[in-house]
Amino acid sequence: MRKGFQWTGLLVLCLGIRAVADEGMWPFDNVPMARIKAKYGFEPTQAWLDHLRLSSVRMGDSGSFVSPNGLILTNHHVGRKCIIAASTKEKDFMESGFYAKSSAEEVKCAGLQVEVLQNIEDITASVSAAANPAAKSTEAANARRAVLQRIEDECKKTGLSCETVPLYAGAVYRLYRYKKYSDVRLVFAPEVTSAFFGGDADNYTFPRYDLDIAFFRAYENGLPAHTSNYLKVSTSGAKEGSLVFAAGNPSTTARLSTLSQLEYLRDVVYPAQIKSYTRRAQLLREFSEKSPEKASMVAPLVWDLENRLKAIRGYQAGLLDKDLMAKKTAEEQKLRKTVAANARLRAEYGDPWGELDIAIAQQRKFDSERHYPETVGLSGRLASYARILVRAAAERSKPNDARLPEFRDASWRMQERDLTNKSSINKALDEIALVDSLGQLVDELGSEDPLVRKVLSGKTPAERAHELIANTKLDDPEVRKELLAGGQAAIDASTDPLIIVQRSVDQEARSEKKRMTGRRGAGDLTGIRVAIGEATFAADGFAVSPDATSSLRLTFGIVKGVGADLPFTTMGGAFGYAKEKENKPPYQLPESWVKARGKIDPNVPLNEISTLDVIGGNSGSPVVNTEGELVGVAFDANKALLAGRYVYDEEGARAMSVDSRAILEGLRKIYNANELADELTGNAPKVQ
Question: Residues of the signal sequence (predicted)?
């Protein structure tokens, strides 16, 4: 069966096993140069790639430096949290927009960090050596986790932020080193009605007319950061049919997932998520109706949930598509046959697909059984803190190898950091999360179920959630620290209502957890997934891009329309579209646009579509031409690209970008932000 991963010499076996489409989210140390040159006649140099990498940033999603003074361009929706936080009672910057004409007026964004990828190191050999081939899968998984933590800890001594990144389901590991900027300030944002024109109704559709941009600035030692690597903003934009690239941090894809994994998502996970998010969104809407302040508080959460719902429904639609699933079935069958027919691969890996099929069948059976105290019923940050505290008291006193995995030393640090985090908790929003989960508990088990009666204590979900959240003290980090330090005695003596509830269900939850892990250990499943990743990598090698991991990737494509849709919309078209929709929200352009209409060139391209392979996390990605100039900033995709989570469809899938010409036109003609436009085009003095 499977041994330690040895891929030297295996790459020559079947690099052509699968027909590799012109797709992919490519790590910067594995860009398919020859493929790009063969198809487009352009080959990026290493210097070109390095400059783009060092000009790109991760800030939750994506962005890029666009001046030597630390100026960053991203999407309005990426910077939404900071824009809301910067607002005052007198001035709602989501509604009015924001522009700092000088550095003194720029507003610091609390908690926002920007990371720039400095270099990438292959650490596969170190990780593989740590996982003893003779060890049980659980032990191997723990060994991998420990060595990854050690590598990150050692790396951080350099002063850089470090992150280990598994690729190909753990067949390959990389160490990413980042330079981090913790002082980031808001410079410019248009009105939300400009950035999100068309609202949720037009989300994931084209044509679009959104100026979805925002500018921030990174600071070092109280001064604007000097960023020698930045992207020049093109004044001529992109042309139809031209080759473009995007550098960003796509969140997750599942293109290398097995058929049984995809069927499980389709049949179990996504239907449950759709139901849960729909219920949560409705609760938030009801909360927002209580006052304008509450409406403002939850507006971004409602938007986020609605956006997630659209995305998940798009993923689900892809998995319900017979042609897509037939393609995935054919790919997997071909790969499995290749491994089975090769004695070397067969001896190395056996049939991990068959093993995973069995594991997922067990998971489906478990899902049909009762499993609520551990995974459903008590949601929210405060309830989660209570669960961790109750369990930590018992687990942390045990020998390390006898603890539940999440309480072992290698995994505990992150949970401990979260427990002692001093960031504030919005109890009103936490109450909504708890109402939602308690409501789900009642829906699934019924009001007379013993567990439900125990948790609700004779009250409705809304009444019980309010009682628990109003009276808990776990929002105070000092209280959490005391309970953590006090161990089992402190937990037993606690009168905090959330601690009491968690104590009352912990034994049942532990029994459930034991049943879950009894089906097949988490380490065993990890071992199976790693085996599939290794077998796939041994067959296809680097010819297929790895699934996305929220780390920097490069994608390429051409500016191209789809169906009857041309690749560009125009600024003049925005006025026509608003008129067509009778200028009613969400199709009402802001007053700034209306006043500037006579100055705006109606022919300036506003949004464009391309065959770039993007997904969530790519928001804010710089779109560049072959000269490395910024010609746009990615902000959305059409519905066909949502299925790209599993299979990329070049014919129908399109990424959407704000054209660089619209950015400059808007800054100068609509917002009178000439100084900012000058900084983008290199005509401004250094920011002090």
Answer: 1-21
